[in-house]
Amino acid sequence: MDFKLTKTQMLQQELFRKFAETEIKPIAKDMDEAEDYDRELLQKLQKIGAFGIPYSREYGGQGADVLTYTLCMEEMSKVDASTGITLSVHTSLCCPCINEFGTEEQKQKYLRPLVDGSKIGCFGLTEPGAGTDAAGVKTTADKTEDGKYYVLNGTKMFTTNSGFADTFIVFALTDKSKGPKGMSAFIVEREFEGLSVGPNIERMGIRAASNCEVIYENVKVPAENLLGKEGQGYKIAMTALGGGRIGIGAQSVGIAQGAIDETLKYVKERKQGGKPIGKYQNTQFKLAEMQTKTDAARLMVWRAATEKDLHGNYAPYAAMCKMFASETANEVTRMAVQLFGGYGYCREYPVERAMRDAKITEIYEGTNEAMRMIVAGSMKV
């Protein structure tokens, strides 16, 4: 077992790190304060191929592996978790639905511009009354008499990227009598009549990310935009979320490592009792604990990513890494704020934002309570 990255992966990691430091870090605080994502940054991310890292060159992707994608997620999230989730929803949730379940025509029409970054994708599953309980979806898709269209009606909540996304993956019931087995998945274009996006939902963290309510009112979707077959929607959603948790694990590691990096700089400069607080054993012990847990979380992410690259049963590993890494991010950022003292509570320093951003990682793409259920299930308890 080799825990070292390949030379190509290290070069990619360095590219992501330099991009994050030069292009994202200088504007991350301003984006958070404005609660708005810089559209020019999306274009810059496209230029470095960030939106199609684990996808085939055949469709305009980078042809890299999932592990390389997690390196990108970590580096971006070190300086801005909002960029991390923007990439994650596009790459881990929207694109896989088409890549794994779409027809060749759908891949050429929709996947290609998504993985080359010329279009942005989002994923509409959560509803006002259906979060972790995805089986509680109420949005409907009724087929027209001539069979040419499905008419969608319903409301989706917390649809990340929806403020500027071009392509929406939407889950709706084609047979209400079958519950989750009657759920289907659709590719919906932003321009389709009846689709409306609400204002950005005000949130505690990842404030720069676009996260809105999306209303579907008699939206006519061509029948050829059905993903897979009728009734496969729940399977498609769960498959995408299983892989998406690896991205959230990487995001969590990035948030934690970013907080550690900022704390290291601070404790070397901040003096108390006539010497830098980094010289005190109490500070050193806290930093050692923070780094050890973050490294453990990173290795769990790498294991899940590698298992997915090998086409193995990665779902339990993805649940473990998401659960452990997100809880580590929350613990580490709290400790970072504590080491900063009163300054850590001020928005002048990035650890305050990191602490706010970390909380959502325990919630989205499956709460950590749900992750524990998945892990326990894999143990055949």
From TrEMBL:
Ranges where the Acyl-CoA dehydrogenase/oxidase C-terminal domain occurs: 231-378
Matching PROSITE patterns: ACYL_COA_DH_1, ACYL_COA_DH_2
Domain Acyl-CoA dehydrogenase/oxidase N-terminal: 7-117
InterPro entries: Acyl-CoA_DH_CS (IPR006089), Acyl-CoA_Oxase/DH_mid-dom (IPR006091), Acyl-CoA_Oxase/DH_mid-dom_sf (IPR046373), AcylCo_DH-like_C (IPR036250), AcylCo_DH/oxidase_C (IPR009075), AcylCoA_DH/ox_N (IPR013786), AcylCoA_DH/ox_N_sf (IPR037069), AcylCoA_DH/oxidase_NM_dom_sf (IPR009100)
Keywords annotated in UniProt: FAD, Flavoprotein, Oxidoreductase
Cofactor(s), names only, from the UniProt record: FAD
Matching Pfam families: Acyl-CoA_dh_1 (PF00441), Acyl-CoA_dh_M (PF02770), Acyl-CoA_dh_N (PF02771)
Gene Ontology molecular-function annotations: acyl-CoA dehydrogenase activity; flavin adenine dinucleotide binding
UniProt protein name: Butyryl-CoA dehydrogenase
Gene: bcd2_2
